[in-house]
Write a structure and sequence with these properties.
The chain is an alpha+beta fold and about 270 residues long. About 30% of the residues lie in helices and about 25% in strands. The protein has 7 helices and 12 strands. A 5-stranded antiparallel β-sheet has the order 1-12-9-6-7. Helix 6 packs antiparallel against helix 7.
Amino acid sequence: MGLFSREPKNRPAEEPSPLRRADLEALLEDLEAGAKYQQALLPQAPPRVPDYDFAFYFRPARTVSGDFFDIRSLSDGKLGLIIADASGKSIPAALVATMAHLLFRVQPEADAAPARVLSNVNRLLFGNIRRGTFVTAVYAWLDPRAHALTLANAGHLPVVVWHSRAKVATTHRPPGPVLGVLPPATYDGSVQEETVPLEAGDRFLFITDGVNEAMAPGQREFGMEHLRKHLKSESDAPSAMFLKGITDRIELHRGGGDQSDDITIVTGRRL
């Protein structure tokens, strides 16, 4: 035999060693620590803004989440509203979501218009996340003095506005690519904005797809029609009560089934 003998051709493949109980416990502890870190980045209470009433809801499908939201006071009296969803599931999505959340906070023009903020975050994300990964997001300004919502959308679900006087819901999704895929030279200038005036009693609603894609037995999605019905019947309620009504409807629709995706909702109403 030579110095380097060959292994027998029919040698059975080695079985992967099972995780020990201690390894599983350490993994669970790490996941719970990650979840606490994500939760700490989120607003802990709705903002207090004259003439407006806010509420929000955040429920991961697993321990950590690919969703996030934020509400930030800007220097000119406006409020910055963010809702976002990283592609994928579980830990990879949570890592990208946490990175994107921090980039929204540290991007260099905190008071910039919504389209500019999305461009800045895309510039910071591009090339720093794995190919095929992306983030959808809505970034909006609420101007409580002008009573107007100006928003830009990066491939996310539309913002829904219930117009109390007209008794009609409208959806708003100005064009904009997802974050982290296109190079800045292509992305910049491709995001558009829309401004929606808010009259007394009007309500706006930001959601992630865990809401409309919540599954009932038989694979029936919750859809947008349930939201429209709830807006029509309950929009004048305080935001916390309105939001509880939506989440109760989602739970009823699921019929005890597993939560299929992270659920995040942000709503505000002009009083």
